Amino acid sequence: MTRAQILTEARAVFGRRGYAEASLREIAGAVGIKTPSLYAHFPSKEALYEAVYAEVVVEHTAFFDELVQRSGELPPLDRLRHFLGGIESYYRDRPDLAEFSLRAALAEYGPDGQALRQIFLDTESELAAAVRRAYDDGVAAGSFAPGDPDGFTALVFVIMDGLFLQLTHYAPEVYRERFELAWRQLAAALSA
């Protein structure tokens, strides 16, 4: 039994049942150990949840940081589409992360919600800077209408959150159709 196995099983249980309904006994059973053995790695259910949450944030951040690196040479509009498309790319093959993230975002953050929210906010800086650069580059090139870069960056994050909800609630074909419709509206608004 390793810490990694515990975190993997805990993520699945917390994703399926939520923080309040998940039990350490269920998590231990999924790992194949007895509940007291969990305490050798985590002093409490809260500590285990926080460790799972932090691991999810690290994975999410690493994926989007890599996405930012790979898109650096794209034209500004293509860069923005690439960032928004990252939502589907990231969660499509990670249903356990989608389930866990959905619960964490909408229903609960365990006993210390504000601290967990702050962990996520602190990791958005590289992506936010990349969105801002794409916007600034588009304005400088004359392909985007000038406006409020901070407001635009906030808009992109709100759209990403909406895309996540769409992805978790609708069939893939419905999601893709809505993504394309929303993308066309955003691209048109940028060039207006």
Tell me what you see in this structure:
The chain is mainly alpha-helical. Helices cover 80% and strands 0% of the residues. It has helices at 3-21, 24-31, 35-38, 45-70, 76-92, 95-106, 113-123, 125-140, 149-169, 172-191. 23% of the residues are buried. The mean pLDDT is 89.
- Shape descriptor reads elongated
Report the β-strand fraction as a percent range.
Answer: under 5%
**Count of alpha/pi helices:** 10
Rg from C-alpha positions? Answer: 19 Å
Task: List the SSEs and their pairings.
Blueprint: H1 3-21, H2 24-31, H3 35-38, H4 45-70, H5 76-92, H6 95-106, H7 113-123, H8 125-140, H9 149-169, H10 172-191
Question: What is shown here, in short?
Answer:
The protein has ten helices and no strands.
Based on the model shown, name its key terms.
mainly alpha
